[in-house]
Design a protein that fits this description.
By secondary structure, this protein is of the alpha+beta class. The chain is built from 16 helices and 26 strands. It has two domains: about 250 residues, Nucleotidyltransferase, domain 5; about 160 residues, ATPase, nucleotide binding domain (Nucleotidyltransferase, domain 5), CATH 3.30.420.40.
C-alpha cells in the first residue's frame, strides 16, 4: 500500500531541499524538507515482513529499495532539486552483503532464533574474562546481531561464505547499494551487540566470539550525520535519482527521532505515548558505562548517549481500558469522561494504583511474565475512575525514568496518546514537569533533515519540534506533591506483583 504525497502550502517555481528517507519496520517514508524545515511533500510505501513459527523475522532488502523508489517518486515534485539524500531507518538488522546485493533475507531486530548462540558468545567472552553486557553497556540476548551471525554460520555456512561485507540496517544497505561504500552510524552500531561502549569501536572480543571477520564490518561514522559519499549511476535505476547527490547517513531511527524532537544536547528528555510508551533522555557518555537491566543505551555523535526506557503498553493500555471499562468508546469520547471526572474530583491521584503491563514489561523492570494489576478498588470505583487510573499508571511507569531534580524542565510529548489533553495534564502532575505537546510533524524525517543540513554545513533554520513551541500544560502544585509521594509506592508494586506471580 502506498500513501500519496502530502504537499504543504509552500510552493516555489523551482523547489529544492533535503530528500529524507526513513526505512522503518514496515514502510519507507520519504519527504522533501526545505532548509526552513517545511515539508514540501511526503509519501510512503509499505513492504512485507516474513515471520516464522520458530520466532524468526525477515525482510527482503530488495523490497526496501523498491519501496524507497515508490515513496520517493510520489514525494518528489517534478521540478524538485535534491540537495542531499538523508538516510535513517530501523536498527539492529543483519544484512549479509555479497558481490551483487544481499545473499539472503535480512534478519530483523526482533528475530529471536539465536538464543543458544547468544549464550555461547556470552560463555566464550566470560572465559576470556569479559562480560558481554558490561562491554557493550547493554543487556545482550537473542536479538544481538553477533548471535544472529553465529547462528547463520552454523546453519548455512555456504551462505556466510558468500558474504563480502555486513550492514546493520536498511540505511546502511541502501548507502552501500548506491555506491557510498560501507558505513554504520554509532546509534545503530550500539544496538548490534558488537560495539565496545568504552571505545565506541567494534569489539575485537565480540567479533571473535561471534565468528565475524572484522574486515567485513562497516566503517563507523562519528557525527550525528555524515556525508558518506555521492550517488553513483545506479541511483537512477534504483531510486530515480541522478548521480552525484550527496548521501548523508543520519543516526538510526531512535537517534534521528530524538534529534527531530529535542536535539542531541545532553539534559534533554522527551516522552512518547504511542502504542508502547517511553522516555528518551540524552545524557553525557560515560567512560565505563554499566548495563542497566531496564533501560537501553545508544551511542550518539558528539560524545552523548541516548537512554531509552520503554514500557510495552502505553497507548495500547489506554485502548484496552477504553474497551474494558468504557464499552469501546473512542479516545475523544473517553476524554470527555475524564474531563467530567476532573470537574468533580479535581486534579491529583485517583486513589487507585495500576501497573499497565498487559503482557510482560521492559521498564522499570524487565520481566516477560509480568502482568498488570489494579489496587485500591472500592464500592465507589466507577468505569471513568478505572480508565483515569490506567492513564495515570502509564504516566507513573514513565516517571520512574526521570530525575526528580529536573522538575520544572519542559517535557515534550509525542505519539498518538499525546493528543489527549487530560492525559497530558496527568503526565504533568505525575512528573512535576511542564508538558509540551510537540507538533505532529514526523520527527524521524525532521531529524534526518537536521542531520543532513549539519553534515552539509549549510545555513538553515530547521529546528527540533520542541524548539518550535506548542501548547504547554503546567503541573498542578498540589497534585504534583501528592504524586511525588506516590511514585515510590508505585515502583514497589512491580516487585510485589512479580513476587505474587512467581
Amino acid at each position: 500500500m502506498q500513501s500519496g504525497p502530502q504537499a504543504s502550502s509552500h510552493t516555489l517555481s523551482h523547489m529544492h531541499g533535503l530528500l529524507c528517507l526513513d526505512l522503518g519496520t514496515s514502510s519507507a517514508k520519504a519527504a522533501l524538507i526545505d532548509l526552513v524545515g517545511r515539508t514540501i511533500a511526503a509519501a510512503s510505501a509499505e513492504y512485507p515482513t516474513r515471520h516464522t513459527a520458530d520466532g524468526g523475522a525477515e525482510q527482503d532488502p530488495a523490497d526496501w529499495v523498491r519501496a524507497a523508489r515508490a515513496a520517493i517518486s510520489r514525494a518528489l515534485p517534478p521540478s524538485a532539486q535534491v540537495d542531499a539524500l538523508c538516510l535513517t531507518g530501523q536498527m539492529q538488522d543483519l544484512i549479509l552483503e555479497g558481490e551483487h546485493g544481499a545473499v539472503q533475507p535480512a534478519v530483523l531486530y526482533n528475530d529471536l532464533r539465536a538464543g543458544a548462540e547468544a549464550g555461547e558468545i556470552r560463555a566464550a567472552l566470560a572465559r576470556d574474562g569479559e562480560d558481554w553486557d558490561a562491554l557493550t553497556g547493554n543487556l545482550q540476548d537473542a536479538a544481538s546481531c553477533a548471535a544472529m551471525f553465529r547462528r547463520l554460520t552454523r546453519l548455512s555456512p555456504e551462505t556466510t561464505a558468500l558474504t563480502r561485507s555486513i550492514t546493520f540496517g536498511p540505511a546502511g544497505h541502501l548507502a552501500h547499494a548506491l555506491g557510498a561504500g560501507l558505513h554504520c552510524d554509532l546509534t545503530t552500531a550500539s544496538a548490534t551487540g558488537l560495539l565496545d561502549a568504552r571505545t565506541r569501536d567494534w569489539s575485537p572480543a565480540v567479533t571473535r566470539a561471534a565468528g565475524i571477520d572484522e574486515a567485513l564490518l562497516p566503517r563507523l561514522t562519528t557525527e550525528a550525520g555524515e556525508v558518506v559519499g555521492r550517488t553513483d549511476e545506479s541511483a537512477r535505476d534504483l531510486l530515480g535519482l541522478p548521480a552525484g547527490v550527496p548521501i548523508v547517513l543520519a543516526p538510526g531511527d531512535a537517534g534521528a527521532a530524538t534529534l527531530g524532537i529535542t536535539g542531541l544536547r545532553p539534559g534533554q528528555d522527551h516522552a512518547s505515548l504511542g502504542t508502547s510508551g517511553w522516555i528518551a533522555s540524552v545524557r553525557p557518555a560515560q567512560p565505563a558505562p554499566a548495563a542497566d537491566d531496564a533501560s537501553h543505551r545508544l551511542a550518539l555523535g558528539g560524545g552523548a548517549e541516548l537512554h531509552i526506557s520503554a514500557i510495552l503498553a502505553g497507548g495500547a493500555a489506554a485502548a484496552w481500558a477504553r474497551e474494558a471499562y468504557l464499552g469501546g468508546a473512542d479516545a475523544q469520547s473517553a476524554d470527555h469522561r475524564l474531563i467530567e471526572r476532573e470537574r468533580e474530583h479535581g486534579r491529583g491521584p485517583t486513589g487507585l494504583l495500576v501497573l499497565p503491563s498487559l503482557g510482560g514489561e521492559r521498564f522499570p523492570v524487565r520481566d516477560g511474565s509480568l502482568r498488570g494489576a489494579v489496587l485500591g478498588i472500592d464500592a465507589s470505583t466507577g468505569p471513568a475512575d478505572l480508565y483515569a487510573a490506567t492513564l495515570e499508571g502509564v504516566a507513573l511507569a514513565l516517571s520512574h525514568a526521570l530525575d526528580p531534580a529536573d522538575a520544572g524542565r519542559v517535557l515534550p510529548v509525542v505519539g498518538g496518546g499525546a493528543a489527549s489533553a487530560p492525559w497530558r495534564r496527568t503526565l504533568a502532575d505525575v512528573t512535576g514537569r511542564p508538558v509540551l505537546l510537540a507538533d505532529g510533524t514526523d520527527a524521524t524525517l525532521l531529524g534526518a533533515a537536521l542531520a543532513g543540513a549539519q553534515a552539509l554545513g549549510v545555513e538553515h533554520r530547521i529546528a527540533p519540534l520542541a524548539a518550535q513551541g506548542g501548547e504547554v500544560i503546567e503541573p498542578d502544585p498540589s497534585a504534583a506533591a501528592a504524586y511525588a509521594e506516590l511514585r515510590p509506592v508505585h515502583r514497589k508494586m512491580y516487585d510485589a506483583v512479580a513476587a505474587l506471580a512467581s
